[in-house]
Amino acid sequence: MIIDKLHYISQQPEDGTHLTAIKAALDAGCKWVQLRIKDQSHNIILDYAIKVSELCFEYKAKLIVNDHPEIALKVGAYGLHLGLQDMPVAQAREIIGPQMIIGGTANTFKHIQQRIAEGVDYIGLGPFRFTQTKEKLSPVLGLSGYEDIMRKVQAAGINTPIIAIGGILPEDIEPIMQTGLYGVAVSGAITYAADAPQTVKSIYQSLNAKLLNQA
C-alpha cells in the first residue's frame, strides 16, 4: 500500500472547475488527488470522478474519492476518504470491497483511536488553521495541537500514517513534519500558486527533508 506524503484536495477556483484545478495540480507534479465536491448531485460528482479518473491514469496519479463509496467503486479509484460525519467505515468497506484504501478524518486523539479501531489505512488530522474549503469546521488545532496529539500517538505506538490538513501553506510544512506527522494535504496553496510546479517541488522537498537529514 502506498500513501503519498502530499495529498492535493480539489476545490473549485474562481476561474475554473474542480477538473481544471486537478489538471493544473497534476501538471504541477501532484501524484495523489482527492476529489472533494460538496453540495452537488450524485450524477455531477460521478461525471467529475470519471474524468478525473482518466486524468489520474494518464498522469500515473492516485485518485481518492471523498464521501461517495459507490462512485469510488464505479470509477476504480485507489481510495475513499470519509469525514467524521460521513458514512461509517464498515458500511463503506462493504460497498467498496477489501482492496481499496480508506482514509478517515480526525480532530482529536480520541478520533484517531476510533479511526484505527474502524480499520482506516490513513488519517487526515485537522484543521491546522481556518479554511474556507470546509463549511462545518472542527476546532482548529494549530501547531501546538499537533504536538500534543502526536505525543499521545507516539506514546501509544500508533504507526498508521497521519496527514495534516486544513489551510496549510508551504512554510508550515517543516514545523508540522517535526511533530512526527507523515505528510500534509494541501488545496489553496497549490490551486492559487503563482508558480504551481515550483510550489509542489518545494513542498516535496520539505516533506522529504526529514528523511534526507536522517540518511
From TrEMBL:
Mg(2+) binds at D67, D86. Pfam families: TMP-TENI. 4-amino-2-methyl-5-(diphosphooxymethyl)pyrimidine binds at Q34, L35, R36, I37, K38, N66, T105, K134. Its cofactor is Mg(2+). Pathway: Cofactor biosynthesis; thiamine diphosphate biosynthesis; thiamine phosphate from 4-amino-2-methyl-5-diphosphomethylpyrimidine and 4-methyl-5-(2-phosphoethyl)-thiazole: step 1/1. It catalyses: 4-methyl-5-(2-phosphooxyethyl)-thiazole + 4-amino-2-methyl-5-(diphosphooxymethyl)pyrimidine + H(+) = thiamine phosphate + diphosphate; 2-[(2R,5Z)-2-carboxy-4-methylthiazol-5(2H)-ylidene]ethyl phosphate + 4-amino-2-methyl-5-(diphosphooxymethyl)pyrimidine + 2 H(+) = thiamine phosphate + CO2 + diphosphate; 2-(2-carboxy-4-methylthiazol-5-yl)ethyl phosphate + 4-amino-2-methyl-5-(diphosphooxymethyl)pyrimidine + 2 H(+) = thiamine phosphate + CO2 + diphosphate. Keywords: Magnesium, Metal-binding, Thiamine biosynthesis, Transferase. The keyword Metal-binding applies. GO terms for molecular function: thiamine-phosphate diphosphorylase activity. The keyword Plastid does not apply. Its EC number is 2.5.1.3. Residues 12-190 form the Thiamine phosphate synthase/TenI domain. Belongs to the thiamine-phosphate synthase family. Condenses 4-methyl-5-(beta-hydroxyethyl)thiazole monophosphate (THZ-P) and 2-methyl-4-amino-5-hydroxymethyl pyrimidine pyrophosphate (HMP-PP) to form thiamine monophosphate (TMP). This is Thiamine-phosphate synthase. The gene is thiE.
